[in-house]
Write a structure and sequence with these properties.
It is a single chain. The strands form 3 sheets. The chain has a 10-stranded parallel sheet, with no helix packed on it. It has a 10-stranded parallel sheet with strand order 2-5-8-11-14-17-20-23-26-29, with no helix packed on it. The N and C termini lie far apart (61 Å). The chain is built from no helices and 30 strands. It has strands at 2-3, 8-12, 15-18, 24-26, 30-34, 37-40, 45-47, 51-55, 58-61, 67-71, 75-79, 84-87, 90-94, 99-103, 106-109, 113-117, 121-125, 130-133, 136-140, 144-148, 151-154, 157-160, 165-169, 174-177, 180-184, 188-192, 195-198, 204-206, 209-212, 224-226. The chain has 233 residues and is mainly beta.
Length: 233
Amino acid sequence: MQLIGGPATIDNSGTIDGTYGNAIDLVGGGVVANQGSIVGFTNGIVAGAPVSVINSGVIQGNGASGDGILLAAGGKVVNQSGGTITGNAGGVVGYQYAAYVGNAGSIGAANGDAVDLMAGGTVSNSTGGTITSNYTGVELAMAGSVGNEGAITGGVYGVDLGGGGRLTNSGAGRIVGGVDGVYAPVGAVIDNAGTIIGTANDGVLVMGGALNMPPAASSKAAPTVSMPAPARM
């Protein structure tokens, strides 16, 4: 389904299937509210102008380089509890303009980043929300903010703050990376009251910036940043 012109509104509680292309292509942006199934041979949803997506159903991009949702000009994605957004290359991908992603459901990618905001923006992962990828759970290539109360997991990095910014990991938040839990090559501010794990390397690798770990209250578990023990010589 390709809609050319001004902004469009799509309210779906059935099935939209892009058999040989994208399931939904909003050239002029608009609003998509999905309680059903949106599955594209390439991408689930592509928007060439700002778009708002509210999902409590399934959005899926099946192409080898396909994304669940591709935001070419920014916008907002709210994945509600029970909602699933997946793609082979990326779950939610934004470029050129900053975007907002709020998740209380599940966002995943098989071969890329689950959430990849190339122009920065904001990611808010609520309690019960999962963001999972074989590569990076959440990547912000430019400065932005990540708030986590759920679980973020990546085969390489849990969170990659490539452009800097701020990560706030709450007491219930859990971030796990197959290499580093959090990677911030240009510096960042990390506020951690939860758990951050780097399975093969560092829990948090920050090249400049600050790591803030508030003291644990007597009734609460201490915040955790863990990394593997060095091999014995």
